[in-house]
Specification:
333 residues; alpha/beta; 5-stranded mixed beta sheet; 18% strand; globular; binds adenosine-5'-triphosphate; binds magnesium ion; cytoplasm; tRNA processing
Length: 333
């Protein structure tokens, strides 16, 4: 099968062609980071306008790089949600227009299913499989017993981990998006500042990051009152140590308690070097097979949407011509 994927849920306009659900023929990503930087975050109106300007060009480029035409494609898979509604609509409408014009089946993909399926572009998935999803809007543990079916066994009760990274970075005066900046700084510092670990109830797989974020802000504030200024690298290292300890600790407990032997990591924060190292080490120790996508497949891209769409194609899960952008779309069905 040849699937054309389209992703416009946030601030990346992307189109890709994937063969057999596993092989990337093209994956064109246009990032808008520069346009949102001076506002310190994604501005929805600006995001939508960029998608409108970019989407046709990106689609043409994806087909050209894959050396296929629209007629060769078996189906068009597009991110249906969650995301910014105005941004989603650009991708959904582009996909519908192409599907209608070429009489091709249309597939509506959940953005987080896409992040998880980025791993299948690296290595075949085996079930039962646990996914640690860490992105700008999500922090979840997702259990899968077969392709295309998802059970969320834990999720954040407040901030997503990427959101916490971006807020702490802003407090330190680092430019948007702050995650990669903190990651870089953390490698140069010492985790010398005592920060809380949000383990929650002993049996919970849920996460919480707003307390940690506030603790960082309070620590900086109190130090300032005393006329001190902790080294930003030490703040970054201490924050990252807390995040990584809880994420890895909960994930490995879920692996043990659910008897899972196969783990994947997904989402933008999976690009974090500290987290990649810690999870890799824990999995080696536990004898668990782990896949982490390369950096370019961790952040938003359309190849992952095409990969998730490919299993929906096999299952005959097609969208009707009423497909719409769903900002609050649920992963479980
Ligand atoms: P969602 O996927 O939940 O809808 P999103 O698509 O906005 O949200 P992604 O694009 O998957 O999120 O990830 C972006 C997030 O990843 C940002 O918060 C960014 O700061 C964070 N991030 C990217 N690289 C790193 C890194 N090396 N360390 C920590 N965080 C990172
Ligand atoms: Mg993004
Ligand atoms: Fe994402």
């Amino acid at each position: 099968t040849l699937i054309l994927g389209i992703e416009t849920s946030c601030d990346e306009t992307s189109a890709a062609v994937v063969r057999g659900g596993t092989e990337i023929l093209s994956n064109v990503v246009s990032s808008q980071i520069e346009s949102h930087k001076r506002f310190g975050g994604v501005v929805p109106e600006i995001a939508s306008r960029h998608h409108v300007e970019q989407v046709t060009y990106i689609l043409e480029q994806a087909l050209e790089e894959a050396e296929v035409t629209l007629d060769d494609v078996d189906a068009i898979a597009v991110t249906e949600g969650p995301g910014l509604v105005g941004a989603l609509l650009v991708g959904v409408n582009a996909a519908k227009a192409l599907a209608f014009a070429k009489n091709k089946p249309l597939i509506g993909v959940h953005h987080i299913a896409g992040h998880i399926y980025a791993n299948r572009l690296v290595e075949e998935l085996e079930f039962p499989l646990l996914s640690l999803v860490v992105s700008g809007g999500h922090t979840e543990l997702v259990l899968m017993n077969e392709h295309g079916r998802y059970e969320v066994i834990g999720e954040t009760r407040d901030d997503a981990v990427g959101e916490a990274y971006d807020k702490v970075a802003r407090t330190l005066g680092l430019p948007y998006p702050g995650g990669p900046q903190i990651d870089k700084l953390a490698a140069e510092g010492e985790a010398s500042i005592d920060l809380p670990r949000a383990w929650l109830e002993a049996d919970s797989y849920d996460f919480s990051f707003s307390g940690l974020k506030s603790a960082v802000i309070n620590t900086l504030h109190n130090a300032k009152q005393r006329g001190e200024e902790p080294a930003p690298a030490d703040v970054a290292a201490s924050f990252q140590a807390s995040v990584v300890e809880v994420l890895v600790g909960k994930t490995m407990r879920a692996v043990r308690e659910r008897g899972v032997e196969r783990l994947v990591m997904a989402g933008g924060v999976a690009a974090n070097r500290g987290l990649r190292e810690a999870l890799t080490g824990a999995c080696e120790e536990a004898g668990v097979k782990l896949t982490i996508p390369p950096l370019a497949l961790c952040t938003d891209n359309a190849a992952m949407i095409a990969a998730a769409g490919a299993v929906m194609y096999e299952r005959g899960e097609f969208a009707g011509d009423r497909l719409n952008g769903e900002p609050g779309l649920e992963l479980e069905r």
